[in-house]
Amino acid sequence: MTSAVMNSKRYIGNIEAPFIQEMSEVTHLMWSLGWDELNGGNISYLLDEAEVKKYINIHESLRTIDLTFPVTELAGKYFIVTGSGKYFRNVIKDPEANLGVLRVNEHGKSVEILWGLREGAVPTSELASHFMSHIERLKVDPTHRIVLHTHATNVIAMTFTHDLDELKLTKTLWEMCTECLVVFPDGIGVVPWMVPGSSEIGRATADKMKEFRVVIWPQHGIFVTGPMMDATFGLVETIEKAATIYNLIGVREVKQSITDQKLADLAAAFRVSPKEGVLEL
Ligand code: 13P
Ligand code: ZN
Questions:
Q1: How far apart are CA 132 and CA 225, in angstroms?
Q2: Tens-digit pLDDT profile for the chain (281 aa)?
Q3: Is the pTM of this model over 0.90?
Q4: Which of 102, 164, 193, 208 is the most buried (most CB within 10 A)?
Q5: Same fold, 1-124 and 126-275
């Protein structure tokens, strides 16, 4: 068998991998919702070695990329990530060019590319925020797997007009749709506006991830985390829906609302604990 044939056989096997399919589907969906214009947004998904090796040769690294921030806690871990400068619109058409499977090396100082990121592409420029967030979320939730960053339109719009205080922002979002408190009783974290793509914004985001599953980057977008793609996507979808309602209401007079008492009743009925300090009863 020629190497071209072998490569094409390997390629067909790879894109059938469930984790590649999930990444392709969710990026397409997010692009179609208008959240991920151009190359906006990025995703990283922690994978099990056993799952990866069903589809990818884990003994053959294609190249190594040094990290500017060490992540010793993630040594030996496997991820599928979106590539930097890659358009979510294009992932479904050519996963191998726009996504990459990588393994963090044993010292946590570089990543080995095992599949994808064809033609010298590199992982997302927000890898620091992703990796540092994975480290913090894994400490509080061993089932954690996914970090997803997107430029959700109404969330961004809301950060221009709403107070950026975490408790106030959380409360407003809870008030926008009855289901919000049930979906994110732990509330929403916010970092100040910062230059993206840096280790500094990575550290600030991960610091918030100790307490929150969701962190908003004002005038930029949102970071959400979770154990499964459906639930993680559902979380951002719910927050974006609440932000949309907030923006639709705008400055018009509100004639009836979900009061703090109603929110407390809801929390009791669904057995969730609302973040301390949000409700005033
Ligand atoms: P990347 O293309 O490097 O992932 O950057 C997109 C982005 O949203 C930056 O915040
Ligand atoms: Zn972004």
A1: 12
A2: 334 334 444 444 577 899 999 999 999 999 999 999 999 999 999 999 999 999 999 999 999 999 999 999 999 999 999 999 999 999 999 999 999 999 999 999 999 999 999 999 999 999 999 999 999 999 999 999 999 999 999 999 999 999 999 999 999 999 999 999 999 999 999 999 999 999 999 999 999 999 999 999 999 999 999 999 999 999 999 999 999 999 999 999 999 999 999 999 999 999 999 999 999 99
A3: yes
A4: 102
A5: yes
Q: Which atom of ligand 1 is nearest to the CA of 151?
A: 8
3-state secondary structure of 111: strand
What's the half-sphere exposure (Cβ side, CA atoms, 13 Å) at 120?
A: 0
How many CB atoms sit inside 10 A of residue 211's CB? 14
What is the homologous superfamily of the domain 1-124 according to CATH? Class II aldolase/adducin N-terminal domain (3.40.225.10)
> Which residues make up the environment of ion ligand 2, defined by Cβ < 5 Å?
221
Q: Whose CA is nearest to atom 10 of ligand 1?
A: 196
Q: Among 125, 133, 222, name the best residue to mutate to test ligand 1's pocket (greatest count of ligand atoms within 8 A of Cβ).
A: 125
| Ligand 1 atom with minimal separation from the 86 CA | 2
> 98 CB less than 6 Å from ligand 1?
no
| Beta carbons within 10 angstroms of residue 9's beta carbon | 11
For the purposes of burial, counting CB atoms within 10 Å of the CB of 89, is it exposed (0-12), middle (13-18) or buried (19 or more)? middle
Q: Which residues pair with 215 in a beta bridge?
A: 189, 223
202 lines ligand 1 (CB under 6 A): no
Q: How many other β-carbons are positioned within 10 Å of the β-carbon of residue 230?
A: 12
CATH of domain 126-275: 3.40.225.10
Domain positions in the chain = 1-124, 126-275
User: Beta partners for 224?
Assistant: 148, 214
